[in-house]
């Protein structure tokens, strides 16, 4: 790596991130500093031991309600990343015109002013021609408020191309459709029977690992039955009550077969919950669409108390089964249609597809239904509530990243629905018990803002690189769809993207089909990478803008407030700087503020950022 001149704040002859590069005020100290780990998205509370200006140890924070003093190997090793002698300490520009995986960019260090001017000029040029030519892809490792900053910058420039990478995959969209939230959690302390479908809950491959591992271990010790359905005997499966091997990608079939057993063979369903809290009683015609009231357009139910059809919010005793005639057409409750549909998933047929024996499918369904204890109640904080201590759970990448993963996830969620076990810490209430979901005109729960999957959108000609407009449900992820749109289907876009910003996101390692993604990046005339370390994706960039290492950053709140804050109470976590010396990087928000000023959109950017963060302008 060539160096033409020292960068601002550089310590001569010593790498700025080395233990020797420390300020005088930190030279003689011995302190433990509480902060937050963000090597992944879990945001575990940690304590960092700094001695004489040098980080010597990382440990879990026992006072953190998120991980209770535990921390994984990735978090423990983060000190290595900080003291990595190859960590960039100044902006760099590519000097090698050849760009591709494994090709040395032959970086040349430049000053921050020159780097930001160069990036801003390319952005200005692109959005002057067509704002859609500017693309921003984010990672999942940044705090929500930083993501809001990136989104505000994208909106200020007018580009629709702001998207994220893979995370919980299609499981997220299933959650939005089922309960209007970004994610669901297991109420492990109150659970008696837990089935994990393709989920290594409590393993480091998942999220919220430390708390989940502790709670599941404690629940197992008190007698909770844990069944893991997984192709491999993972660490989670090896510690379960029962491991059920399965052919990869067939979890959804087992879930549907269990539903068939519960609904059609055993009749174990929570009729009251289905009739009053779901759309199971909504009448549907032969075309599968709701039968609606002519005057209001509201979906109808068959009210058994009046033996007539009434709007969903007026029926007192909705029917879940039967055939009825409304306005001259035959219809039936959605649940009746579901019962008939499930008959094709008899355990004998499913066993051939999944390798899970039919008798085992029936036993698991029976045990799950019985454990749900339909009709039982529990008192929490003086309030009597329904108690359904059974849970079927899938998350992250194990199940939902397969083809048709969204529908497989929906099948697993349906197991909870039919027995009324949806109160598994879905976080529909935010801080101060503020409702975090909305109600649609059809009386169904839906997510707020632009993340909702329901009601379905009307497909239209694509305008964004992730082809969002073609999909009536869900939100296609930026990386995968960028590869499809730019490499395999470039004719679908009415423009050619030219400038790409990647935010601390090594998609060549975490995305699908790295070769296709590399080809997609190669379609851009100018690529910028923001990161706190060099990586396989960064070597595809034209400009590298170094970020502060997490040990140098101030961020609040760190834990996401979108849907997987866990436990019985809400809390916020703070990441504070552990070291005070300057090592040449910047906070990502600082970079976007400076870019907004240079691009000429600061007057649009600031109000949008304030609004997204709920801040009042002074």
Question: How is this structure best summarized?
Answer:
The protein contains 18 helices and 23 strands. The chain is of the alpha/beta class and 618 residues long. It has a seven-stranded mixed β-sheet with strand order 5-4-23-22-21-6-7, with helices on one face.
Key phrases:
single chain; disordered N terminus; N-terminal domain of TfIIb; alpha/beta; seven-stranded mixed β-sheet; 618 residues; Dimethylsulfoxide Reductase, domain 2; Rossmann fold
- Describe the main β-sheet briefly: 7 strands, mixed
Going by CATH, the architecture of the domain at 92-166 and 477-548 and 583-613 would be: 3-Layer(aba) Sandwich
> Overall pLDDT, averaged?
87
CATH class of the domain at 92-166 and 477-548 and 583-613: Alpha Beta
User: N- to C-terminal separation?
Assistant: 45 Å
Structural class comes to: alpha/beta
Strand residues, percent: 15-25%
Name the strands of the widest sheet in spatial order. 5-4-23-22-21-6-7
Rg from C-alpha positions? 27 Å
